[in-house]
Amino acid sequence: xxxxxxxxxxxxxxxxxxxxxxxxxxxxxxxxxxxxxxxxxxxxxxxxxxxxxxxxxxxxxxxxxxxxxxxxxxxxxxxxxxxxxxxxxxxxxxxxxxxxxxxxxxxxxxxxxxxxxxxxxxxxxxxxxxxxxxxxxxxxxxxxxxxxxxxxxxxxxxxxxxxxxxxxxxxxxxxxxxxxxxxxxxxxxxxxxxxxxxxxxxxxxxxxxxxxxxxxxxxxxxxxxxxxxxxxxxxxxxxxxxxxxxxxxxxxxxxxxxxxxxxxxxxxxxxxxxxxxxxxxxxxxxxxxxxxxxxxxxxxxxxxxxxxxxxxxxxxxxxxxxxxxxxxxxxxxxxxxxxxxxxxxxxxxxxxxxxxxxxxxxxxxxxxxxxxxxxxxxxxxxxxxxxxxxxxxxxxxxxxxxxxxxxxxxxxxxxxxxxxxxxxxxxxxxxxxxxxxxxxxxxxxxxxx
RNA sequence: GCCCCCAUCGUCCAGCGGCCUAGGACGCCUCCCUUUCAAGGAGGUAACACGGGUUCGAAUCCCGUUGGGGGUGCCA
Length: 449
What we know:
The chain has helices at 17-33, 52-64, 79-91, 157-167, 183-193, 223-228, 233-241, 256-262, 277-289, 293-305, 318-328, 338-346, 354-362, 367-377, 385-398, 403-415, 423-430, 433-446; strands at 4-7, 36-41, 70-74, 95-98, 104-105, 115-118, 125-130, 134-139, 147-149, 172-176, 199-203, 206-207, 273-274. By secondary structure, it is α/β, with parallel strands linked by helices. Strands 5-4-6-9 form a four-stranded antiparallel β-sheet. Strands 1-2-3 form a three-stranded parallel β-sheet. Helix 3 crosses helix 4 (157-167), helix 4 packs across helix 5 (183-193) and helix 14 (367-377) runs antiparallel to helix 18 (433-446). It starts with a strand and ends with a helix. The structure holds one RNA strand.
């Protein structure tokens, strides 16, 4: 029999990085063992459910490249199974009805307005094997009688989880460590119902800089946010796979297919991991650099054709961008970095960056002389990168400046920023002489006298 | 409080009794390259929480201490 795993999110918020990592590790286990990945929506909490988020969660999983073989199943559609399991437990005396004050009420069938609690044994142990943590044991005496059925007529997570895992023949429950202490309760239900136990694997938690469990409320962790900031899904998934696990050969950035073939759930480590955006960015930059131009253009499209693009839509030229990409691709960390590297091509006037102007023009050396000199020199020199470079360099030398310093005022005048593409290539291949001269004059005018 | 889990560079990962004067990656620093920024190249910084055992030998096994985290809901 092949392994059957499930990712079982509850639709109470957007998919966040912790859940995505759990989904990914389930998926990795399924794909690396030839098993089956199920998707189950645990929507038993009618108070908190946000049904409109279900499709969003599906889309984020797909975006990450996480697919599933069965489902989605919805716990809310399995109420009869849950109810009959509770009736069985009630009839067997393994559970009891109780009122709002938690007082036991006589009766052996579910009744409106009453909750049902599982009667935990007074003594004994609940040992279980965890693929990541080895043997874990809880004493029954430590387990209070817990609610399995709410007074509003819905099952709790503990009951639904046990029944569904049994019905769906789930063999491996791979989930976050925050659920570790709920395992013995589920196991007790499974035993009382006569069902086998799945094997557990509790993943180390993802934590913030305070080493607290990542929380949707206080931490910026929505997968959607990372997507809109310009992270590539393959970079995101690759990085997520590195949290709690590492390849035996230390090659961290690699195709997911290779990770699948190297992954073993038992190799996952036990301690919590900090989600490090800096490293994520590095991974992303590496993937960005490796993208063929055509592919890059496709991926970056939302950032350059969207309404947020810092230029009038009618001035944007895809062919120009396509030709320009090789000049900047290796400089980007996020897709979202692209606009500010290319905006000067698609605007009438460059978007002047205050800090850049300040450093290159105000306190930078000899900005006036450089602009004046460049305006004169570039008026007649051959319009090609080397000639432009030589011309600017000559003006610089005349003012005692090396090229690095000399080009700064020109760069800011033409592109609006001190950081950008190779200047002379950009000018020679993507702008004409008149436009460059015009921008130099405009900048010079601002600098008067 | 009680229960459970965890403990190697700032961070992530490797290490599964000798190959460890602890390795890789991110970050940071220095230098080289250089038309900015990157990229690339060469270096550097930096860790086995502590105390006891076990063993010829411990980062690796055991116990304890300390520290951190999770749980303790008619949330999941």
